[in-house]
Write a structure and sequence with these properties.
Number of helices: 9
Number of strands: 0
Largest sheet: none
Radius of gyration: 29 Å
Oligomer: single chain
Helix content: 55-70%
Order of helices and strands: HHHHHHHHH
Strand content: under 5%
Structural class: mainly alpha
């Protein structure tokens, strides 16, 4: 009995993590958004139950997909419920597992933030200017300059292509 309930708990936690990942990535990725258009798509894949969907919708039925962090919070709450007989893990293992779930949530948050706050266009433009300048200076710097008898010629000589 204890092993089967521990296995069910593990499956539920993994399902919550997959649900969070899918909800987060479906807001970013167009192909994934096509696959997971409606709440029925999530239910058909076995990622969410009707009760969980009702809890996610709450007061805002149209923005439930944007609340991707809630299933990870549910998973953390499941691990926090201290049932050593059913979970089969010690308190230290429990803390380590919660730490990993929090890290997973943090990484998803980073991906979500990067998508909503991309690098400004000026960074790409500055990089292109730097590359073209480096190429242009490299072309002129690779030219052979012949000095005639005076060292002052170097200040007035501009190397041309030969």
């Amino acid at each position: 009995q204890g092993r089967s309930s521990a296995l069910e708990l593990k499956k539920k936690i993994v399902r919550y993590c997959l649900l969070s990942w899918t909800m987060c990535m479906a807001t970013i990725s167009a192909p994934l958004k096509e696959i997971f258009k409606t709440e029925e798509d999530y239910s058909e894949k076995g990622l969410i139950t009707e009760e969980e969907l009702a809890a996610l919708k709450g007061q805002k039925p149209n923005s439930w997909k944007d609340q991707w962090w809630i299933p990870i919070t549910w998973a953390i709450c499941l691990v926090n419920a201290n049932h050593p007989e059913s979970q089969g893990c010690q308190v230290k293992d429990q803390k380590d597992f919660i730490s990993q779930l929090s890290k997973f949530q943090s990484k998803l948050h980073d991906v979500s933030q990067y998508q909503t706050n991309p690098l400004p266009l000026i960074y790409g433009q500055a990089l292109m200017v730097a590359i073209y300048t480096w190429i242009l200076l490299g072309v002129f710097g690779a030219q052979y300059l012949t000095l005639q008898h005076s060292p002052s010629v170097i200040w007035f000589a501009l190397p041309w292509f030969r």
